[in-house]
Write a structure and sequence with these properties.
The complex is a heterodimer of chains A (about 525) and B (about 300).
Chain A lengths: L30 H6 L3 H18 L2 E4 L2 E4 L2 E8 L1 H26 L3 H4 L5 H5 L21 E8 L5 E7 L6 H14 L1 H6 L8 H11 L10 E4 L8 H11 L2 E3 L4 E4 L2 E6 L2 E5 L1 E4 L3 H4 L15 H6 L4 E3 L10 H4 L2 H9 L6 E2 L3 E2 L3 H9 L4 E5 L9 E2 L5 H13 L4 E5 L5 E6 L2 E10 L1 E4 L4 E3 L4 E4 L15 E7 L39 H13 L2 H5 L1
Parallel strand pairs in A: 3-23, 5-13, 6-7, 6-11, 11-12
Antiparallel strand pairs in A: 1-2, 4-5, 4-20, 8-9, 9-10, 14-17, 15-16, 15-17, 18-19, 19-22, 20-21, 22-23
Chain B lengths: L2 H33 L5 H11 L9 H10 L7 H14 L6 H13 L8 H22 L4 H24 L8 H7 L3 H8 L5 H10 L7 H15 L13 H17 L2 H6 L1 H25 L1 H11 L1
Helix pairs in contact in B: 1-3, 1-4, 1-6, 1-7, 1-8, 1-14, 2-3, 4-5, 5-6, 7-11, 7-14, 11-12, 12-14
Chain lengths: ~525, ~300
């Protein structure tokens, strides 16, 4: 690879593989030599095999109606153990704090009464759902699955960029990326101990079963998808398949007397837990958008009366509102009495006049985001915006200051990425996934590393043509208890009476050499010409 | 039909099934070695090799691949399985439809030479070729006695190989069932039937006893029994003796009964031993089938006596 990174540019950003002097960082010490031994063609061939592997498996992304393989880069992102310890603790802490915040906000409102967070901020959020006010889910969990987006600053610190506690997507790619990389780079895996990710569906299923309404012994779990045209449909099928549960659309479900049923060939079958991948607004035409074809009429009532559990819960959107994000460190201190393990990115609240004034003067150097957007929609990056765009932005912010926040432009860290036949730095973020089963918050080792493929691009999002990388969390030399099999179910020694697979009779067909010679002689004797020469 | 042809067909069935099962076995266990970073490679590889009936002095990942996949000199390798299958097919060419012969022959000729970095795709290929053979054979062969010998071999091998894959579960230090299920091609099927619950008991039940799943041990034994019943002369022989193949039916029936009526916790307690029982039953049944249908032992003895 020496020539592959010959003119690898150094920049202001933190590169995950090479330090400022071009030296290989410790986490990449085992991987680098393997990559270094490959020529550009070899790397390209492997990269193509990743793509064709994805294409064959149907792991594709719709780009303008054309199916193309979900872009997976051949160079993985490697996280050292120490970093992961911090991230794991930080993500779990954040999920716990947001759970507490949601629970409090939809019941007593302590934090609001104590002045930790302004009342108007919550009630003005577009995602605040009055329908679930006062409703507590059966096992108290609202964030069954959370995705916390992290970035690394030029100084090498990890910061939280945003929280996703509505329907975070992308975890299927964590699983398929790993399996594709094992096929493509088996040698790399033999040199490095990497924490496995294949246990995720089991964890998720356990958490979903734990969320079932009280009194249900063997809950029926389903995954609710908007349908085949949804861009994350592949993920919905993978999760349903790997959990062995039914994948349903709204029209497959029916509410009767506060219970939910699915329509099967054997009649109606009760559903206890719905892992829904449909937004709040489309979930129930009775309560939300009456024109929704994706939802189930009566679902909200079933949730309110405890007939069915919904994961993630309704109304979680207030917790990943970007203005609430600015209060999360305070919420962590308030609810958990802990200091935040991972800091936020500095953020101006534009509804505060002083902050707004400062930001308006510096619009051209800041990043301005709508508070309820996701998927990189509506973000304006000051330095890359035209004067007209900035003027338009200024008007919109003045009209609705509650709707916007501003952040300094952070140079996200970079990882070498195969572009053409060269490795070039590309900006990445990281979305670890947390699963809350009510007793503990499990963070899947790794997460989805998303890559902004255009040079210098800082908005990293798969709905905007981003790529991805397999994310390796380096493992220690001993097995963590979570990966350990209960001792009583292991016997570990083989019996003495092992039997080798049967073989044909030695004198039977195909084994008898003397017979073979005879046959050959027969042939020679009927062909005297050949015998003579 | 000719005993010789019947024997060839029987072994074609066995070897092609063995090639497929070995490919699955290697695929999941090589992945597991990679995915589970805390396994000791030599121990794991040594155990896997002994499970497949192969001895090695210095077991390692490369040895595992050499002995079970690549080395034409190792009788247990996938490559050898296909060679034996082809050898047998050549002897039975006149009764095998030409498209079936072509599948076997082209597979043998197409065995990829450079398999180093294409490891996983080689296994996929091997699996695909076995599947192609099964589909072509089923769609083009008359379902006569010859066919019964072919699928009897296949079912016998399949019961045997599933028992080895199940026994491998006891060697894995993490939850072994996803890998074992994948090895039997049963992962998705199992998850759908049992709604994702992966307890030892449920998986063992599925892989050992489920008569609807085409790779369970029970399904294999059932298949052997069906074929045997169809080809064994129902009435007693002229001399009034029972046909010898009834012994094989008895053995298979006994094994089925043992699996069916032994309480599952008891089986799980001695999973390895039980699986070894399945293997010995398959082996013993093979010997009886050989001697009663193929060998015509006295005749072979007569020819070999002169040449030795």
């Amino acid at each position: 690879m020496a020539d592959l990174i010959a003119d690898y540019p150094t920049s202001a950003a933190y590169d995950e593989m090479l330090d400022a002097h071009g030296q290989v960082r410790q986490p990449y010490a085992d991987l680098y030599p393997i990559l270094a031994h490959m020529s550009a063609e070899e790397l390209r061939t492997l990269s193509d095999s990743l793509a064709s592997n994805y294409f064959d498996a149907g792991i594709t992304f719709d780009v303008g109606g054309v199916e193309s393989p979900f872009p997976l880069d051949i160079v993985p992102r490697v996280l050292p153990r120490e970093d992961w310890t911090t991230i794991e603790a930080g993500v779990a802490q954040r999920v716990r704090a947001l759970e507490a915040f949601l629970d409090d906000t939809y019941t007593h409102g302590r934090a609001i009464n104590d002045g930790v967070i302004p009342r108007v901020l919550v009630s003005s959020s577009t995602h605040f759902q009055r329908a679930v006010q006062g409703i507590r889910p059966p096992n108290g969990v609202r964030i069954h699955v959370g995705g916390i987006d992290l970035i690394r600053t030029p100084e090498g610190d990890v910061r939280v960029l945003e929280d996703n506690v509505r329907v975070p997507s992308g975890v299927s790619y964590v699983i398929t990326n790993r399996s594709a990389m094992i096929s493509a780079l088996p040698r790399a895996f033999r040199n490095t101990r990497i924490r496995p990710v294949s246990g995720y569906p089991n964890r998720l299923l356990a958490a979903l079963r734990a969320a079932a309404p009280a009194g249900v012994d063997n809950p029926t779990v389903v995954v609710l998808t908007p349908g085949v045209y949804n861009s994350a449909y592949f993920e919905h099928t993978l999760l349903a398949r790997s959990m062995g549960v039914e994948l349903v659309e709204g029209r497959d479900l029916e509410c009767r007397r506060g219970k939910v049923y699915m329509r099967t060939t054997e009649g109606l079958e009760r559903v206890d837990v719905i892992y829904r991948r449909v937004d709040d607004d489309f979930l129930d035409p009775v309560h939300f958008r009456p024109d929704s074809m994706l939802g189930v009429p009566g679902l909200v009532n079933a949730v309110r009366t405890g007939g069915v559990a919904l994961a993630n819960a309704l109304g979680n959107g207030i917790a990943d509102d970007k203005l609430v994000y600015t209060y999360v460190p305070d919420l962590i201190r308030y609810y958990l009495d802990e200091e935040p393990v991972i800091k936020n990115v500095d953020t101006w609240r534009l509804e505060e006049p002083a902050a707004r004034e400062e930001v308006m003067d510096r619009l051209d150097e800041l990043v301005v985001k709508p508070v309820d957007g996701s998927g990189g929609k509506g973000i304006v990056i000051g330095p890359f915006a035209t004067t007209a765009e900035l003027d338009a932005l200024r008007e919109r912010v003045t009209a609705d200051p509650r709707g916007w926040i501003a952040q300094p432009m952070v140079q996200l860290s970079t990882v070498p990425t195969l572009i053409g036949d060269k490795l070039a730095p590309r900006h990445v973020d990281l979305r670890p996934f947390a699963v809350n089963n009510g007793e503990e918050v499990y963070v899947l080792p790794g997460g989805l590393t998303r890559v902004a493929l255009p040079e210098g691009e800082l908005v990293v999002n798969s709905s905007q043509g981003g790529g991805s990388k397999d994310t390796w969390v380096l493992a220690g030399s001993s097995r963590p208890p979570a990966e350990q099999r209960p001792v009583e179910s292991r016997t570990s020694s083989l019996p003495d009476n092992l039997v080798a697979p049967s073989l044909p009779r030695p004198t039977g067909v195909g084994m008898d050499t003397s017979h073979k010679e005879q046959v050959q002689q027969q042939q020679q004797s009927v062909d005297p010409e050949e015998a003579s020469c | 039909m000719l005993s010789r042809i019947a024997e060839s067909l029987f072994w074609i069935g066995r070897y092609i099934e063995r090639a497929e099962a070995t490919a699955r076995f290697l695929d999941v266990h090589l992945r597991l070695l990679v995915e589970d970073p805390w396994t000791s490679e030599p121990d794991a590889c040594g155990d896997l090799l002994s499970l497949m009936g192969v001895q090695s002095d210095e077991p390692s990942r490369d040895e595992l691949i050499r002995l079970l996949s690549d080395d034409p000199a190792s009788p247990a390798s996938i490559v050898s399985c296909w060679r034996y299958a082809r050898d047998n097919a050549r002897r039975a060419r006149e009764v095998i439809p030409s498209e079936v012969w072509e599948v076997i022959n082209t597979t043998w000729h197409q065995v990829p030479v450079d398999r180093r970095d294409r490891r996983i795709s080689f296994f996929e290929w091997a699996r695909g070729r076995s599947a192609l053979f099964s589909g072509t054979a089923r769609g083009s062969m008359v379902h006569d006695d010859g066919w019964q010998f072919l699928i009897m071999g296949r079912h016998l091998e399949q019961a045997d190989m599933t028992s080895r894959l199940v026994a491998a579960s006891t060697l894995v230090e993490t939850n072994p069932w996803p890998a074992v299920l994948r090895g039997c091609g049963a992962h998705d099927a199992f998850l759908r039937m049992y709604r994702g619950v992966q307890a030892d008991r449920e998986v063992a039940e599925f892989l050992l006893l489920d008569q609807r799943f085409p790779r369970s041990i029970m399904y294999g034994l059932d298949g052997v029994e069906r074929s045997l019943e169809m080809i064994t002369p129902a009435r007693h022989t002229a001399a009034g003796r029972r046909h010898e193949a009834h012994d094989a039916l008895q053995l298979i029936g006994k094994m089925r009964a043992e699996l069916t009526y032994t309480p599952m916790p008891e089986i799980l307690e001695q999973l390895n031993e039980r699986m070894a029982d399945v293997q010995s039953t398959c082996d013993a049944a093979t010997k009886i089938i050989s001697s009663s249908f193929f060998s015509v032992d006295d005749l072979t003895a007569w020819t070999t006596e002169g040449t030795r």
